[in-house]
Amino acid sequence: MQQPLAYRMRPRTIDEVVGQQQLVGEGKIIRRMVDARMLSSMILYGPPGTGKTSIASAIAGSTNYAFRTLNAATDSKKDLQVVAEEAKMSGTVILLLDEVHRLDKTKQDFLLPHLESGRIILIGATTENPYITINPAIRSRTQIFEVKPLDETDIQSAIQTALLDKERGLGELPIQLDEDALLHLSRATNGDLRSALNGLELAARSTKPMEDGLIHLTLAIIEECVQRKALTHDKNGDAHYDVISAFQKSIRGSDVDAALHYLARLVEASDLASICRRLMVIGYEDIGLGNPAAAARTVNAVLAAERLGLPEARIPLADVVVDLCLSPKSNSAYTALDAAIADIRAGKAGEVPDHLRDSHYQGAKELKRGLDYQYPHNFEHAWVNQQYLPDKLKNETYYLPKETGKYEQALKQQYERIQNWKKHSPQK
C-alpha cells in the first residue's frame, strides 16, 4: 500500500521545511542548533498538520542522527527501552514522541536520565499547551517552541512542489490544477498542510483523465475532496477575507442581522476555525473592558463549538454572536498598550526606577536596588504616591477610559480617584 502524499513529502533536511521560519529560518534557534550540531531536547506544540513531525525528521536528516518515532499514549516503556539501547550503541538518537502530554510517570522516570546524558534527543509533539499539560520534570529539560499554522502562501508552495516532484510527489501524473482550486485548497484546510496534501492526492487519484489525458482538478472537485465549500467562486480570491472582515465589522457596529448573515456564510463554508479565531479576537478587541464577561463567554462558546463540531457548533456560535453584537464595546485597553509599544519602539523605554528594581540578591542593597520602595498595602486604600514609570516617561498617559459599559465606568471612576489622589498627595 502506498504511503499518503503528506508522508512521502516530509522534508528530508531543514532546508525543505515548509513555513515555521521563526524557528528554522536563517539565524533562528532550531537552524542554529542544527548548524552547530548542538541539539537539545524540545517540545513542539501547535495545531495538527503544521509541521511538528516534519521539523523533527528534518533535524534528523540534517544531522544524520538515527530517528525514531513513538507515541506517548500507545507505546510502552519497553519501546522506550529499545530506543535507549540503540542510543547506547549509536551514540545519539532523535526520538519524536507524539502526544508527549500523555507521558505517564513510569515512562517519564525512564526517559529523564537519558535526556540528561544527551543520548536521547527528545522532540515532543503535542497540540496541547505544554505549560499546562506537561510535567515540570520534562518541561525543565526541554526548550518549548510554538509551531504556527501555515499561511496560504506556504501551503501553495508545498502543493506546487508536490505536483512537480516525480519521485515522492505527483509529478508522474498529468495534473492541471485550476487557480481557484489551488486557492481554496490552501485556505480551506486552515493551515493544515497534511490535510491539503492528502486532499490533493485524493482528488488526483480519483479524477478520471480527460480525452487529452489531463487530470483536470477544478474547484468543485477540490471542494468535494476536502469536504469544504468555497465561500464564492470569485477569481480574485478575496471572498474569504471579505466575509470575515464584514463579520467582525458587523459585530463591531452592533448589527445583529448582518453579523448572523456573515456567520451563516462561514458556517456553510464549514470554516469553523476562522469563525472561532475571529470571535476570540472580537471578544477582546471590540468588546474588551466594555463587557469583560462577554469576552469570557466568547471563550466558552468557542470551546463548546470546537468540541461539538459542525453542524451543532452553530448553536453556541449564534448565541455568542448576538451577545457580542448587543454588548457595550471598548477598545481602550489594547489601544493604550499599542501607544506604550509605540513609545518603546521609538526608543523611549528608559531605565526602571531604582526603588522598583529587584532586590532579592546579594549586593542589591549596595546598589540601592529597591531601598525606597513603598509597599502599597501598608497605606490607606492600598495606594501610595510613588513613581512607577521611567523618568523620561513619568508624565505619559496611555489609558483613556471609556463609558460604554458599567464595568469600564467603574474602572474610570477608580482611575479618576487615583489621579485626584496624585494631585493632592506628596510623592514618597
TrEMBL record:
Signal peptide start and end residues: none
Domain of life from the UniProt record: Bacteria
Limits of the AAA+ ATPase domain: 38-150
Keyword field contains Transport: no
Keywords recorded for this protein, A-Z: ATP-binding, Nucleotide-binding
PANTHER family for this protein: ATPASE WRNIP1 (PTHR13779:SF7), WERNER HELICASE-INTERACTING PROTEIN 1 FAMILY MEMBER (PTHR13779)
Similarity comment: Belongs to the AAA ATPase family. RarA/MGS1/WRNIP1 subfamily.
Protein name: Replication-associated recombination protein A
Organism: Candidatus Enterococcus courvalinii
